[in-house]
Amino acid sequence: MEEKGAQINDSELNSEVGKTVESAEKKPGRKRKRISFSALIASMPMMLVAVGLFVICVGYSILLSFTKSRSFPRFNWIGLDQYERLWNTERWLVSVENMFIYGVLFVVICLVSGFVMAVFLDQKVRFESGFRTLFLYPYAMSLVVTGLVWQWMMEPSLGIQNVIQKLGWAGFEFAPLVDPEIAIYGVLVAAVWQASGLVMVLMLAGLRGIDMDIWKASRVDGISTWRTYLFIILPMMRPVIVTSLVLLAVGVVRVYDLIVAQTGGGPGIATEMPAKFVIDHITVRNNVGLGMAAATMMLLPVLAVIGPWIYREYVSPRKRS
Amino acid sequence: MGSKPQTSLLKRSMGLDNPWGPRPIKTSPARMGVYGFLIVAALFFCIPLYVMVITSLKGMPEIRLGELFALPNDPTVAAWLKAWAEACTGVQCNGIKEGFWNSIKITVPSVMVSIVIGSINGYALSFWRSRGANLIFGLLLFGAFVPFQVVIFPLIIFTREMGMYGTLPGIVFIHTAFGMPIMTLLFRNYFSSLPEELFKAARVDGAGFWQIFFQIMMPMAIPITIVAVILQTTGIWNDFLLGLIFAGRENLPMTVQLNNIVTTTFGVREYNVNMAATILTALVPLVVYLASGKYFVRGIAAGAVKG
C-alpha cells in the first residue's frame, strides 16, 4: 500500500522535474528543496507513528488515569483518586515489590554472567561460535516458551527436584513455583536463562572492539589478565554496559508473557507484575481508570532510564556530526 | 630413493617458515578451567531444550515415572501429532496448527510492510538532518522502549473506531507501528554509513529522491534487509501480548494458542503434548536463528548499539 503511494509520488515528481528542468538548472537551491520535500513525505509514516502512538496515545492514557472510566473511556474527572486507590491495592504493592526484586537481580545477574561468559569466550577457545550459538539460542525463543519449559522442569513431583531426590539427596528442594515466598526467584531463573546470552553477545562485541595496544601495554606493565579485564577493560566498556542495562531494564518493566505462561501470577498473587496488573484491569477487570493509573506509574521508571540516554545518544546536537 | 628425505626436509623447513593447521594450544590448568566453565554454562543452556525434546517423545506412563532426564525407552511422535492436530485450546480441539497458520498470516505481511516503511523512513532520515528530524527520531526511539501497556488501551479504542480491532489488518497495523522505531533506526544507521559521494553522484546524474532510493540505495541495502527480516520475523512470531489483544478470536497467533493448550486442561495434564506444542512454537524462530547466525547477532547489535 505504502509502496504504491510512493511510486505514484515518484512519477509525479519525475514529470515535475521534466517541466521545471530549466529553472532548476538556473537555481540550484530548488532541487534541494524538492528533495527535502520528498523526504518529508517519506518520513510521514514515522512522524504519524511517533506523534500518534507515542504522544497522543500516551497522553490519552495519562488523561484516563484521572477519570472514573470502567470499560469505556468516560471523562468524569476524579483527580488523583485512582492513584490513591492504586497505592492502597495489595496486588499493586506486591507487583511493584516483585518488579524491584526481580528487576535488580535480573539486571545484575545478566550483566555479570554475560560479562563472564564473554571474557571466557574471548580466550581464543575452540568452538567459539558453537558455544556462542548455545548461549544465545534461548534469546531467539519466546518468553511463553521459556516460561512453559521452566514451569515443567520446576514441577515438584516430576521435575528436577524429584530427580535429584531420587539420586539420594532427600532434602533437595527445587520447586520454587509452588511456594509463594520464593516463586519470583523461579521466574528469575527462567528470565536469566533467556536473556543472559544477549548480554554475552553485546559484551563480546565490546571486548573485540578494544584496541589490542591496551593489552600489550598492560602486559608490558606486568598486570595479570584478570586484573586487566576488571580494572582496565571493564571501565572501557561503559557504553556497552549502559546499552545492555537499558535493554534489560526495559525488559523488566515490560515482563508479561513470562509471568502469564510460567505462573499466571500465582501462587495467589505472589508473582504478579505491574505489566500484568495493567492488562488485567483493562480487559477482564473492566477498570480502565485504575489500569491507566498503573500504566502511568510504569511510564515513570522508563522515562527516568530512557530519557537521558536517548537525549545524550541521539538528540543532543553535540554528538551529531 | 634419495629424494625422499629431501622432500621431508623441505616440508619441515616450509613448516617452519609458514606454519599451517590449528595453532597448538597449551593445556594448562587455566585453559582447562576456561573450557570447564564454558561446558558447564553450555549445559545450563542446553538442559531445557533437551528436556523439552525428550519429554515430547515419551508416553504419559513413562513421564509419570519421574525420570526427567532419562532418554525415552520407546520414542514416539504421538504427542507431536496430537499437539499439532488434536490438542484443545479452550473449547476447540484442533491442535496448534491453526495457531501456526495464523502466525504465518500475521508475520508475513507485518514483516513486509514494516520493512518497506522502515527503509523509506530510514532513507529519508539518513540525509535529512535537522534538529526537528532528530527530535522526531528521538521520540520514535523513546517509543521503542515505552511499555505496551501505556499505549494499548488508546490503541484498542483507535482500532475499534477504524473497524480494525480483532482483524488481520488490525494486527498487521499494530505490528508495523511498534516495529517502526527499530526498523527506522536500523536503516537510518545503514544508509548513513554509505559514502555520501554515492548519493551526490546520483544527484548530479539527475536522479530524484525516489529514484535514488529504489535504484541505488535499496539494492545496496540487501544485507541490512536480511537483518531486518530476521529481527522482525522472530520478534513478531514470538509476540504474545499484541496478538492476544489485537488479533481477535479467529486469528490468535501460535504463542497464544500454545499458552491456551497448556493452561486449559481438563483432567490430567499431558506434559508430552504440552512440550511437543512448545517445541513446535519455538521451531520457526529457532530455525531462523540457526540458519542466520551471524545476521541474527548483527540484528541484536544494530538494534542495541547506536551507529
Tally the beta strands of chain A: 0
Report the CATH topology name of the largest domain in chain A: MetI-like fold
**Apparent shape of chain A:** flat
Helix content of chain B: over 70%
Query: Termini of chain A, distance in Å?
Result: 35 Å
Helix content of chain A: over 70%
Question: Could you characterize the architecture of this molecule?
Answer:
The complex is a heterodimer of chains A (321) and B (307). Chain A has helices at 2-19, 21-26, 28-42, 44-64, 81-86, 90-121, 128-140, 143-153, 160-166, 183-208, 212-220, 225-236, 238-254, 257-262, 274-282, 288-315. With 321 residues, chain A is mainly alpha-helical. Chain A folds into two domains: 1-64; 85-320, MetI-like (MetI-like fold, Orthogonal Bundle). In chain A, helix 7 (128-140) crosses helix 10 and helix 10 runs antiparallel to helix 13. The radius of gyration of chain A is 26 Å and the shape is flat. In chain A, 40% of the residues are buried. The model of chain A is unreliable at 1-30 (pLDDT under 50). Chain B has 307 residues and is mainly alpha-helical. Helices cover 75% and strands 0% of the residues of chain B. Chain B has 14 helices and no strands. Classes of the chains: A mainly alpha (321), B mainly alpha (307). Chains A and B meet through helix 1, helix 3, helix 4, helix 6 and helix 7 of A and helix 2, helix 5, helix 6, helix 7 and helix 8 of B.
